[in-house]
Write a structure and sequence with these properties.
The complex is a heterodimer of chains A (about 300) and B (about 350). Helices cover about 70% and strands about 0% of the residues of chain A. With about 300 residues, chain A is mainly α. Chain B is α/β, with parallel strands linked by helices and about 350 residues long. Chain B has a domain of about 160 residues: Response regulator (Rossmann fold, 3-Layer(aba) Sandwich), CATH 3.40.50. Classes of the chains: A mainly alpha (about 300), B alpha/beta (about 350). Chains A and B meet through helix 1, helix 4, helix 9, helix 11 and helix 12 of A and helix 1, helix 2, strand 7, helix 7 and helix 8 of B.
Chain lengths: ~300, ~350
C-alpha cells in the first residue's frame, strides 16, 4: 500500500468509525445504568432524517445536527416510556422502537420528498482541519481533518470515562446498573437515572445519525442506518463498557470496514462475502480473546422494580 | 402479584402494535373499488423511495391502478421470513395478481403458488416458474452494455468502477455486460468491482465509490437501490471542471436524480412492463413461464442524460446508437447470466 492509499484508508477508517463511536458511547452510559437499548438503530435513523430535514430547512448543517439529536432523543423517549416507566421487556420494546423508527422515517421522507425518492444534496458538515495536529504524518489528516462531530466523539470518550469512574454521579449511575435495589435503598432514584441515561444515549445516537447524513453520505436514504445501531451495541461489549476502549473499538471496527473495501479492490478473485464478513470475524476474534476479563453490568436488561418471580 | 404480570406484557405489546403498525401502514393505499375489480399487489424488499428499481415498480403499480382501474396494494417486506406472510395475506384476501419485485422472492413465490392456485404471481428476474408463478426477465444487460460503451468512451484515466449491492445473478449480469461494453471501446480499460452487501447502505456505497475514485476510476456505475445515492454523492464531490467524473444510473431512468454528473442510465421501463403484464393478464393472454423483455420491445434501453449531451463526444453517441441497432437486430450478442432454471412446458 503506498502512502496515498494508506492515507485514504486511514481517513475512511475514521469516517466509518465516527458514527459508531458516537452511538456506542451513548449506549455505554445506558448499559452502565442497566438498560440495553436495542432501539438504538431507531434513534440513528431518526437522527439521520432529522439531521437532513433540519439542515435543508435552515441551510445550516450545525442546526441539522441539533435537529438530529432531538429526533434521536424523542425516539429514545418512546423506548424509555415503555421500557422503564412502564417496565416492559427491554428487548421487545427495543425491537419495536427500531422497526418503528425505520417505518416512521420512511413515511416522513416519502411524504416530504415523494414516494419514489431522490438523491438529496444536503448542506454538509465540512472537514475542520485542526491546526498543527492535522499536519502530523499519516494519522494527522485521518484523525484531525474531520467534521466537528468526529471531534465530539474524541472529547466525549475521556469526559464520559471521568464521569463514570471519577464522579459521584457516575458511581450512582453504575450502582443503578449493578444493584438497583441497593441503589434505591441508598436513596438513588433508579428510574430517573435510567430514563436520563437512555435519553442521553438517544441524543448521541441522533448525532450519530445526523453525522451519517450530513458528514458522511451527504444525502439521506431510507434505511441508511443499515444496522449500525446493532454494531454499536457489539462495539460496547468489545470496548468492555469503558468509554475510552469503546472509542478505540469503534475506530478498530471502522478500520476493518475500510480495509474490506481496499481488499475487494486488490483481491478481485476472493469471494466478496468473505471480505464483507472480515470486520465481524475480527470483532469475534477480539471478543473471544479479550472479553474474558470483563463482564456486563449485573442488572443489564433486568426490569426494575423486579417483577414477581424474578 | 398477578397485576404486575399484566403490566409487563401490555405495554410491550402496545409498543409493538403501535410502532409495528406504522411499518405495515406505510405500505399501500387500498381504495373502494367494486368487488369484481382487478386486485393487484406489489411486494418489494426495499423502500420504494430509492429512485430506482423499487421506485419503478411502485410507479408501475400506480399506472395499473390508473389505467386499468385496479385495486392496488403495496407491502415492503423487510426479511425473507416476511415473504411467505406477505404472499399469504394477498392470497387469502382474494388478490388476482401479485408482482414480487425481485429474484429473492422466487422460492416463497413457488410455495405461495401451490397454496393459492387462483393467484398469479409474477416474479421480477425470477429463476423458477410453475403454472401460476411467472417470471418477468428484463434483459438489462443490453442497456448495461451500452452504458459500458459510454463509460469506456468518457473515461480519461482508462479506469471505470462498478459498485453493487449483493452479487445476485441479475446484478452480476449487468456488470459483465458493462465490462464488455467498456472494453469494446478500449480493450485495455481497467474495471473495478465492489459489492457492499446491502442495497440501502448509502454510507458504505459512498465509501466503496470513494475507494474506486481514489484508485483512479473516473466513471462509476452502480447496481444498488437506495444506496446509489451514496455513489452519486461521491461522484458529485469528486467532480471538477478540470477532471470531470461521471456516474451512470441503473434500473430506472435516474438522469434527473443527479443530473449534473449522470451521463445516462441503463434503464428498464418497469411501469410499462407491469402495465403490459396486467393488461395481458386481464385479457387472458399472459403467456406461461417466463416473459423476456429487452431492447427489442423497447422496455430496456440506455438513456443518455439530455443535460449531459453537450459534454459527450458526438462520435461516441453515434457508436452507441449503432450498437443499439445491432443488439436489436440480433447482430451483437451481449454477455448475460442465465438464471432461469426451468423452461416453461409446451407451447
Amino acid at each position: 500500500m503506498d502512502a496515498a492509499a494508506l492515507q485514504a484508508f486511514l481517513e475512511a477508517s475514521v469516517r466509518l468509525g465516527a458514527p459508531l463511536a458516537l452511538a456506542a458511547l451513548g449506549e455505554t452510559i445506558s448499559e452502565r445504568a442497566g438498560v440495553i437499548n436495542i432501539g438504538l438503530e431507531g434513534s440513528i435513523i431518526g437522527g439521520a432524517l432529522g439531521g437532513a430535514l433540519g439542515a435543508l430547512l435552515t441551510g445550516s448543517p450545525g442546526a441539522g445536527v441539533l435537529a438530529g439529536a432531538m429526533a434521536g432523543t424523542a425516539i429514545a423517549g418512546v423506548f424509555a416510556l415503555f421500557a422503564i416507566t412502564l417496565n416492559a421487556d427491554q428487548i421487545i420494546v427495543g425491537t419495536a422502537v427500531t422497526l418503528g423508527g425505520l417505518g416512521i422515517t420512511g413515511v416522513v421522507y416519502q411524504s416530504v420528498f415523494g414516494a419514489t425518492g431522490t438523491a438529496l444534496t444536503l448542506p454538509t458538515l465540512p472537514a475542520l482541519p485542526l491546526p498543527g495536529l492535522s499536519a502530523l504524518p499519516a494519522l494527522g489528516p485521518a484523525l484531525f481533518s474531520q467534521a466537528w462531530t468526529t471531534y465530539l466523539a474524541y472529547l466525549l470518550a475521556p469526559a464520559l470515562w471521568y464521569y463514570l469512574f471519577r464522579t459521584r454521579w457516575g458511581l450512582e449511575l453504575r450502582a443503578v446498573g449493578e444493584e438497583p435495589t441497593a441503589a434505591d435503598a441508598a436513596g438513588i432514584r433508579v428510574r430517573r437515572t435510567r430514563v436520563l441515561a437512555v435519553l442521553g444515549a438517544g441524543f448521541l445516537a441522533g448525532i450519530a445519525g445526523a453525522h451519517l447524513a450530513l458528514a458522511h453520505a451527504g444525502t439521506f436514504a431510507e434505511g441508511m442506518s443499515a444496522g449500525r445501531g446493532f454494531i454499536a451495541i457489539a462495539v460496547v461489549v468489545l470496548g468492555r463498557w469503558n468509554p475510552l476502549l469503546v472509542l478505540l473499538a469503534s475506530l478498530f471496527f471502522g478500520a476493518a470496514s475500510a480495509l474490506q473495501f481496499e481488499l475487494q479492490a486488490v483481491f478481485a478473485n476472493v469471494p466478496y462475502q468473505l471480505l464483507l464478513a472480515f470486520p465481524y470475524l475480527l470483532t469475534l476474534a477480539a471478543l473471544a480473546g479479550w472479553i474474558g476479563r470483563s463482564r456486563a453490568p449485573a442488572a443489564l436488561a433486568r426490569p426494575w422494580p423486579p417483577r414477581s418471580g424474578e | 402479584m398477578s397485576h404486575s404480570r399484566i403490566r409487563r406484557s401490555v405495554p410491550a405489546l402496545a409498543a409493538a402494535c403501535f410502532l409495528g403498525g406504522l411499518v405495515v401502514g406505510c405500505g399501500g393505499g387500498e381504495n373502494d373499488s367494486p368487488d369484481d375489480a382487478l386486485r393487484v399487489a406489489l411486494l418489494t424488499s426495499g423502500p420504494v423511495s430509492d429512485a430506482g428499481w423499487y421506485a419503478g415498480a411502485y410507479e408501475g403499480l400506480l399506472l395499473i391502478e390508473e389505467s386499468l382501474g385496479a385495486q392496488v396494494s403495496h407491502q415492503q417486506t423487510r426479511s425473507p421470513a416476511e415473504f411467505d406472510e406477505a404472499f399469504f395475506s394477498y392470497g387469502s384476501s382474494g388478490y388476482d395478481l401479485v408482482f414480487a419485485h425481485g429474484f429473492e422472492y422466487q422460492d416463497a413465490a413457488l410455495r405461495a403458488g401451490e397454496e393459492f392456485p387462483e393467484l398469479t404471481i409474477v416474479v421480477s428476474s425470477g429463476g423458477r416458474i410453475s403454472d401460476n408463478v411467472r417470471s418477468l426477465i428484463f434483459r438489462l444487460e443490453e442497456g448495461s452494455y451500452l452504458a459500458g460503451m459510454m463509460a469506456g468512451g468518457l473515461t480519461r484515466s482508462r479506469v471505470v468502477g462498478m459498485v453493487g449491492g449483493v452479487a445476485i445473478p441479475p446484478a452480476q449480469g449487468t456488470f459483465r455486460a458493462f465490462e464488455a461494453g467498456a472494453r469494446s471501446i478500449d480493450p485495455d480499460i481497467e474495471v473495478l468491482e465492489a459489492f457492499i452487501g446491502s442495497w440501502d447502505d448509502v454510507a458504505a456505497a459512498r465509501e466503496a465509490a470513494t475507494a474506486q475514485l481514489n484508485r483512479g476510476a473516473d466513471v462509476l456505475v452502480h447496481n444498488t437501490d437506495a444506496a446509489s445515492f451514496g455513489v452519486f454523492q461521491a461522484v458529485r464531490e469528486a467532480n471538477g471542471d478540470e477532471n470531470p467524473v461521471w456516474a451512470i444510473g441503473m434500473n430506472r431512468d435516474q438522469n434527473d436524480v443527479a443530473p449534473e454528473v449522470i451521463a445516462g442510465s441503463a434503464a428498464i421501463d418497469i411501469p410499462r412492463a407491469f402495465l403490459d403484464v396486467a393488461s395481458r393478464f386481464t385479457a387472458g393472454t399472459l403467456p406461461p413461464g417466463a416473459l423476456d423483455l429487452s431492447l427489442g420491445e423497447g422496455v430496456v434501453d440506455f438513456i443518455v442524460n439530455p443535460e449531459a449531451l453537450g459534454r459527450i463526444p458526438a462520435d461516441l453517441l453515434a457508436r452507441i446508437d449503432e450498437a443499439r441497432v445491432a443488439i436489436r437486430e440480433g447482430m451483437l450478442e451481449v454477455p448475460r447470466i442465465e438464471f432461469l432454471e426451468e423452461e416453461p412446458g409446451g407451447p
